[in-house]
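Researcher: Let's do a round of design. I'm pasting the structure tokens now; please hold your answer until I've finished.
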């Protein structure tokens, strides 16, 4: 109590002037604190970041359209941390203010030294949370008169969680498992990744290297190395620069542009793709001429839908400056988007099929259904396709790390057990193997055709010139032994199969090629293989007659000998003709006629009536009395065998 009295006595001694000075000082400090707080908050605002500096408009524009439009810029670029840490980082970033004032920078600008994902992304997104599979449908309009709409549906295997819970799979496996990589591109965009190291659950490591770009130990030690996190895939999640095609798909899907306007997708992509230097006015004038295009080329439609066309022109003029930023040297081509593998390498930076272990026995998987199901495509009014999920009976071959590259060389009849193989390799979506989402895109960033792969994996079978062309039909009947490569092998002299079919087996031929003429409808006159003019019972040794050199029998062509055809292969092409139907002209030779008869073309020489009970060999073995001598291959024949082929004349 006495202490309080003493304090009070001391305060009473302070003069009014001093009190005023003290209160003024406190007020100044309070205003300074309030002002600095306001300045701190304002300079941390996204508006300040995006509009104060003239280098930021492209990034601010894309940010406003992003999923993170309500997340402040500083939360990613400085991080969600304590005031002291934020203040220190912001002080260090003051160097960029100096660079801005002095003009010490070049376009396009790229963000470097972003905060680790654990200080930005993971403050909201918990990496150990498991995310269930998600069905997504991408809508894409074709560049044709009808702007045909194509739906591509797939299930994204997001995954996540931890292996302790039996999870830790799917796309977010990359976060559960420590992955370090080396990148070698100059501008630090991390597009060229020749070396990856995965730390396994037991603590061991597996290193994968690009077989096309092997690194020396010195390069491994010197090049920058990074631990993979969220932003290595989601690098443009807040600043996506759409391509003209993506912008048009968005406008047509949301009906901001009427998708019934003929050819509007192609025309829109065309005008949005053209750079006009720094002149936005020239761009707007060029886009305005789209209306004239419809007046001239779609006059009737334009007269009935003038407002729709004019609205489309206005939308294109609005979107052009959202895609082109000539002052900053920036557009959709300058900033890679690693989420995907179509317009940029993305996933294929590592999952390109050519990152192998040192022993070359395993690769980083290049397989569609690691991260999502096989895309299912529906066009126009067709019903949504069925989506294939994981199959319990998936063969062991499909689980190898190089299966997607090898399946082109191992395609055979066994595929039909699980898949529809019609028009395999095509892109008309008529079957599992003619998927336009797979075969309709040139995957230029995948390593399918990397030259070094040929030393590890068999070179792929080249696709046909037109993968959508229907398979050729078989212009002849199929016999009981469909060994197509007898005549259609790569080196056949008849009609060899194309080089693209190298490695395909006989049992696969009928998977694509269908005979147009059934055996009973066989027509030798149409240039097809000649028919057999006699019964086959007891006459399995065709070459005994037809490769004997005997003039009384039609002899096999020279190419049959070159191909070393066997007896068992004859009925592959040659079939007995119908009863009463004359054989083809190339299947027989004339037989001795009756006296006064014209030459016959009915088949093998008949036995004259007065010879019916004769012992054939007695005369014909040695050619007694001018009788036709047995061919060399008949030397061991018995009399009872003669009537197997030679029938008594009526």
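Researcher: That's everything. Go ahead.
Model: Designed sequence:
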């Amino acid at each position: 109590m006495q202490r309080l009295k003493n304090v009070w006595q001391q305060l009473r001694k302070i003069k009014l002037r001093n009190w005023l000075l003290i209160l003024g000082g406190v007020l100044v400090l309070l205003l300074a604190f309030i002002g600095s707080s306001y300045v701190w908050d304002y300079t941390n605002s996204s508006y300040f970041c995006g509009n104060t500096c003239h280098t930021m408009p492209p990034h601010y524009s894309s940010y406003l359209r992003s999923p993170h439009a309500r997340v402040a810029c500083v939360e990613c670029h400085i991080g969600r941390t304590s005031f002291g840490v934020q203040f220190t980082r912001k002080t260090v970033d003051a160097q960029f203010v100096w660079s801005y004032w002095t003009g010490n920078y070049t376009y396009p600008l790229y963000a470097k030294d972003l905060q680790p994902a654990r200080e930005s992304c993971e403050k909201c997104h918990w990496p150990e949370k498991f995310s269930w599979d998600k069905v997504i449908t991408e809508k894409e309009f074709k560049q044709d008169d009808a702007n045909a709409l194509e739906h591509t549906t797939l299930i994204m295997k997001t995954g996540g969680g931890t292996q302790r819970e039996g999870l830790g799979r799917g796309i977010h496996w990359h976060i559960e498992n420590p992955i370090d990589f080396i990148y070698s591109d100059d501008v630090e965009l991390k597009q060229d990744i020749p070396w990856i190291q995965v730390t396994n659950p037991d603590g061991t490591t597996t290193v994968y290297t690009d077989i096309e770009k092997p690194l020396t130990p010195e390069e491994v030690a010197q090049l920058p190395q990074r631990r993979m996190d969220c932003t290595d895939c989601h690098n443009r999640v807040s600043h996506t620069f759409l391509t003209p095609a993506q912008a048009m798909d968005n406008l047509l899907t949301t009906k901001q542009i009427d998708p019934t306007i003929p050819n509007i997708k192609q025309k829109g992509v065309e005008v949005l793709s053209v750079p006009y230097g720094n002149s936005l006015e020239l761009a707007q004038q060029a886009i305005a001429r789209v209306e004239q295009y419809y007046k001239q080329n779609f006059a009737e439609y334009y007269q009935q839908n003038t407002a729709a066309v004019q609205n489309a022109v206005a939308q294109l003029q609005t979107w052009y400056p959202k895609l082109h930023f000539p002052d900053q040297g920036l557009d959709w081509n300058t900033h890679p988007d690693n989420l995907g593998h179509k317009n940029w390498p993305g996933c294929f930076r590592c999952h390109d099929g050519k990152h192998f272990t040192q022993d070359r026995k395993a690769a980083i998987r290049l397989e569609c259904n690691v991260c999502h199901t096989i895309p299912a495509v529906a066009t126009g009014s067709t019903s949504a396709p069925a989506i294939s999920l994981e199959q319990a009976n998936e063969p062991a071959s499909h689980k190898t790390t190089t299966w997607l590259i090898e399946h082109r060389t191992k395609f055979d009849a066994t595929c039909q057990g699980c898949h529809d193989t019609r028009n395999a390799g095509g892109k008309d979506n008529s079957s599992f193997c003619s998927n336009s989402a797979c075969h309709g895109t040139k995957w230029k960033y995948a390593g399918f055709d990397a030259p070094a792969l040929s030393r590890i994996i068999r070179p792929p079978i080249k696709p046909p010139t037109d993968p959508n062309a229907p398979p050729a039909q078989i212009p002849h009947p199929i016999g009981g032994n469909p060994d197509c490569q007898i005549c259609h092998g790569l080196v056949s002299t008849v009609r060899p199969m194309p080089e693209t079919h190298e490695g395909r087996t006989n049992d696969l031929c009928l998977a694509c090629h269908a005979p147009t003429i059934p055996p009973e409808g066989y027509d030798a006159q149409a240039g097809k293989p000649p028919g057999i003019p006699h019964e086959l019972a007891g006459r399995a040794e065709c070459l005994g007659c037809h490769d004997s050199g005997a003039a009384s029998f039609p002899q096999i062509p020279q190419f049959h000998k070159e191909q070393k055809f066997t007896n068992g292969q004859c009925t592959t092409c040659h079939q007995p003709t119908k009863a009463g139907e004359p054989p083809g002209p190339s299947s027989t030779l004339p037989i001795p006629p009756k006296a006064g008869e014209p030459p016959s073309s009915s088949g093998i020489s008949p036995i004259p009536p007065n010879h019916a009970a004769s012992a054939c060999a007695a005369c014909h073995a040695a050619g007694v009395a001018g009788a036709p001598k047995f061919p060399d291959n008949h030397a061991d024949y018995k009399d009872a065998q003669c009537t197997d082929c030679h029938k008594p004349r009526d």
